[in-house]
Amino acid sequence: MVAKIKIDKAREFEFTEEIFDKIRQLVKLHTGIVLADGKQDMVYGRLTRRLRALDLPNFESYLSMIEQEDEEELIQLVNAITTNLTSFFREEHHFGYLKSAIFPSLLEKNAATRRIRIWSAGCSTGEEPYSIAMTVREFFSDYPGWDVKIIATDLDSNVVAKAETGVYDKARVDGVSLEYKQRWMKRGKGEYSEQVKMKKELQELITFKQLNLLHEWPIKGPIDIIFCRNVVIYFDKDTQRTLFGRYADVLADDGHLFIGHSENMFNVCDRFESLGHTIYQRTS
Ligand SMILES: C[S@@+](CC[C@H](N)C(=O)[O-])C[C@H]1O[C@@H](n2cnc3c(N)ncnc32)[C@H](O)[C@@H]1O
Questions:
Q1: Which of 46, 138, 146, 240 could be joined to 80 by an S-S link, Cβ 3.0–4.6 Å?
Q2: Which atom of ligand 1 is nearest to 31's Cα?
Q3: What per-residue confidence (pLDDT) applies to 3?
Q4: Residues annotated catalytic, as ranges
Q5: What pLDDT is stored for residue 9 in this prediction?
Q6: What is the pLDDT at residue 11?
Q7: Region of residue 8 (phi > 0: left; psi between -120 and 50: alpha; otherwise: beta)
Q8: Which of 81, 87, 132, 155 to mutate to test the pocket of ligand 1 (most atoms within 8 A of CB)?
Q9: What's the CA-to-centroid distance between 25 and ligand 1, angstroms?
C-alpha cells in the first residue's frame, strides 16, 4: 500500500494556524466578519499582496502594523478581506415588491411629507442602489414632486469609490432589460465603447458613503426601506442581533427590511415580521 503524504503548498511567507487565528480576531473586531475554518488560502492569497506591496518580510510584521491600528493599513486589510459579489437586480422579486406593494403604500402613508428614504447598507460596487434608483424613477415618473433619496454605504472604500463613478463594463449589465438600459444608461464612445455609465437621473438620487455598520451611523432616520442583503451572512448571530435591532431603531413604523436569499431573522430579532421571500416589516 502506498502511504498518502499530505504536502503543504510551498508558501512564500510562513502562515501558521496561529497567524490565521490572529488575523481572524482582528477582522472580526474591525468588520464583524467571521472568517470560517478553511479560509486560510483565501486570506493568505489576499494578504500576501499587501505584504509584497509594503515590502514586509513576514506576517508577524504585518500583524504588528494592524495591532498598532495603522489606520491606512486597517482600511487596506478590510478592503482585501471583504467579499463584494453583487449584480444588477439581484434577487429581482425584491424590486418587483418595491414597485407593486411598498411604493404604492408609501404614497398614502407619506402623503403629508412626500418624502421617502431608502438605505442600501453594504452596497458593494453600486449595482444594488442603481437597481433601486431605476425602480424609483420608473414608479415615481407618474408621481412628480416626491422627494425620494437613496443612501448607499459600504465598509470597503474601494467599492464605494467604484460605485460613485457609475461606470460598468457592458457585460455587467447584460441581465438588465433593453428598455431599462436605453432609458437609464449611456453607452461609452471610442475607447470607452465597452463601458456604460448610469445616467445623471439615477446618480442624483444616490449619496454614497463609506460606513462600517458596526460603528456609529450618521443616519438618523426615519428610513422607510433598508436593503441589507448578503452582508450579515458573514457575521455571527450576536452581531446580527445588534445590527437588526439598530435597523429597527432607525426604520419608520412599519418600515421594510430586505435581506439576502440565504439569510433569515429566525431566533435573531423579534422586532420584524416576515412577509416572505426575505422581506421583513418592522413591528416594534
Ligand atoms: C456580498 S456583498 C453584497 C452586496 C449587495 N448588498 C448585494 O446583495 O448584491 C457584501 C458587502 O458587505 C460589505 N460589508 C461587510 N462587512 C461590512 C460592515 N461591517 N459594514 C459595512 N459593510 C460591510 C462588504 O464590503 C461587501 O461589499
A1: 46
A2: 19
A3: 43
A4: 46, 154
A5: 59
A6: 85
A7: beta
A8: 155
A9: 19
SS3 47: helix
Angle at 245 between CA 269 and CA 75, to 5 degrees: 115
**Which atom of ligand 1 lies nearest, measured to the CA of 124?**
27
Q: Is the pLDDT of residue 269 over 50?
A: yes
Q: Which residues pair with 185 in a beta bridge?
A: 198
Q: Is 125 in the pocket of ligand 1 (CB under 6 A)?
A: no
CA dihedral 230, 236, 241, 242 (to 10 degrees): -100
Average pLDDT for the chain? 94
Q: Of all residues in the chain, what percent carry a pLDDT higher than 90?
A: 93
* Poorest-pLDDT segment among 1-10, 122-131, 210-219: 1-10
- Residue 8 Cα, ligand 1 centroid: separation in angstroms? 32
Q: E strands within the chain?
A: 115-121, 147-154, 167-169, 185-187, 195-198, 206-210, 223-228, 251-259, 272-274, 279-282
More confident: 8 or 61: 61
Residue 5 has pLDDT above 80, yes or no: no
Best mutation site among 231, 235, 242 for ligand 1, i.e. most ligand atoms within 8 A of its Cβ?
Answer: 231
Q: Which three cell numbers stand for residue 93?
A: 422579486
> How many angstroms is it from 230 CA to the middle of ligand 1?
7
Residue 69, pLDDT score: 81
Terminal-to-terminal C-alpha distance of the chain: 65
pLDDT digits (tens, 9 = 90+) for 239-257: 999 999 999 999 999 999 9
C-alpha cell at 206: 444616490
Closest atom of ligand 1 relative to the 260 alpha carbon: 8
Identity (one letter) of the amino acid at 149? K
pLDDT score of 199 more than 70: yes
